[in-house]
Hints:
The complex is a heterodimer.
Chain A: H1 2-10, H2 12-21, H3 25-33, H4 48-59, H5 64-77, H6 79-92, H7 107-169, H8 174-222, H9 227-283, H10 294-297, H11 300-483, H12 495-504, H13 509-517, H14 520-524, H15 530-546, H16 557-569, H17 589-601, H18 605-613, H19 617-622, H20 624-655
Helix pairs in contact in A: 1-2, 2-5, 4-6, 4-11, 5-6, 6-7, 7-8, 7-9, 8-9, 9-11, 11-12, 11-20, 12-13, 13-20, 15-17, 15-20, 17-18, 18-20
Chain B: H1 2-35, H2 40-63, H3 74-77
Helix pairs in contact in B: 1-2
Amino acid sequence: VGGTILYANWDPKFRANVEKSIPYSDQVFGLALGPAAPPPVINKPVSQITRVLEHILRNHSLSFVACVFVAMILSAEQNVLSVFCIPLAAAKCTECEHEPAVKERPEGEVAARLAEQDKAEQDLLTSLSSNLEDALGSTAKVTLQAIGAQEAALQAIAQHTRQLREAMEAEAPPDKKSTQWRVLEDALSERSRSVDEAGAAVLKAKAELDKLRGVIDGAKHLKIAAARPSILAAEENLHSMVVDLDSVVTRVQTAQSEAKIVSQYSELVNEAKAQFQKELNSITPEIQANWKGLTGKLTQDDLNSLIAHAHRRIDQMNRELAEQRVREQIHIDSALEQQKLEDKKALEVAVSTALEHNREQMRLEQEKKVEETREVMEAEMRTQLRRQAAAHTDHLRDVLKVQEQELRSEAEEILNSSLMEKETEYRRLTQDQLDSFTLDMNAAYARLKGMEEAIDSHVIAEEEARKAHQLWLSVEALNYTLKTAALNDPTEPLEGAVQAIKESCAEDEFAQALATALPSESLSRGVYSEASLRARFYAIRQLARRVALIDETRNSLYQYFLSYLQAMLLFEKAQEAPPAKLSAEDLDTFKLLSYAAYSLEHGDLELAAKLVNQLKGESRRVAQDWLKEARLTLETKQVVSLLSAYANAVGLGTTMAP
Amino acid sequence: MSEKELGKKLDRCLADSAVKLGAGLGLGIVFSVVFFKRHTWPVAFGLGMGLGMAYTNCQNDLRAPYLIQRNIKVSNATKY
């Protein structure tokens, strides 16, 4: 704010801008600085300060006041920059709410424009400087030429005057005089020529100077600051040139006036000489006015008359001299007055020119001083701004640091809390996961266990089934071996099959018992089939019929004969169905045999065997083997059937769940 | 084979009777020739003796299972 006020104090345009943009700032300025002075037109070119400000604006976010301050400075100098900086300030300044409605141009465009302008200015500057230099150079050249010409003219005039004087005063012999006169004429012509030249050169120089002045004015009108020193220099040069030219011109003029005096004097002298000559001629007409023939042609009379004329002339001269002396004073006075007048005029002219020059000089000096002070002020402003910028950056740094701290602590807090939350969440989730996992695991384990048990039981069951199957198979094998009985031959020995059974049911006691319960003959020798037994029975029956009468008491040969006879004569039914209960009279051999035959025919070997078991005596003895075989077969069959039933039962049993 | 026993016995009987008869005959003949001056009664006698021996043998053979032997206990005798 202090910087703003100071700068407003120095630059009224800036002050006006600030007053325009910030409300109530005019009052502040009025309080601090007093009323605003009318703004002088000082064109401030784009200086480095603006670049610094740009830099500041670009890189820092400023407070509102500084924003506007900077914007106003820049707007005071360059409208484009203000347009550029205000949107920049608006973009960067977060508090800038009261920003005037300025069209926001895009930064790039403005920067480009600025660059363009800078370039244009730069070009203009260079062209201007080049123009100035060219103009200066040409003007200097021309002026130098003019000065040289003037100097030459001066020289010529001086020489001519000198020569004239010499010619006037020196009494040289006529030929030398003529050469002198000729030389004088040459000098005169040269003088006139050089004077003309000098005049022309002066004109040219004056024209060039005017041109230069015009160029300088044009440059001044362009109002480019960087050209100012060159403009100033050009002006100085111009001024010096003008001064030199004027001095030379004055010198030439004085020389010319002197020359005029001398020429007047020479004219007078010439006139006097002519007069003298005329008088001389009037006195001595035959003497030719020829200085060359003067020395040898004059006679003594001529000489005397000449001397008398001369004396007369001298007297006349003396009289004129006295007159002149008298008039001298008056002439001198008048001349003095005239001179005074002329001097005054010249003085005035000189004074005016000197004044002009001085004024010019003063103006130049003022401008130079202004320039210097401006630069000093600028530098000071720059330093102040820099200081302010530095202070601002420090302040910003501090504020940012504090903010950073605060934000950091906040963020840390938030982070911690969220972290805690997340951690608890995570713990909870993991715990849940673990629990569920444990549950799953337990369930899976239980299921696994169940499955294992099921599998084991299945295995056991399978085992059992296998065993049962094996048992069954072996029993089937046994059965099969039972079937292998040929008609009159026993079966294969059942030993192998029984062994197989024994092996297949190694831990089954029942089966083992059954397997061991088989009669050994069946194992070793095999058993007869029912069919064979049936077939055999008929033979047995026949025999048993024949020896039906023989028993312990009756066993002689005669009885044999009698029983044979009985067998031949007795006819019983071939097959008779046995009653459910045997009575005493059923125990007759023949009846028994028919019962047995019937039961055999009907497949009931057991009953047949039972019935045959009831035989007594020799019939019994005859049927003994058959009975044994039948018993064996029955036993075996019983055991086998038991086994197969058992195997079936076991097989059935294993298919059921335990 | 118990049922073949009778047949065997009878075969033996017959064989035996034949032998006996033959032997009796032979002896009878021999005796008759030798001792009894070709009377026929030694032949008959011999034949008869032979036959009788054969008959007895046959009978004994047939009875053999029913015989109670002295050195065997009664309980074992009926073992069949």
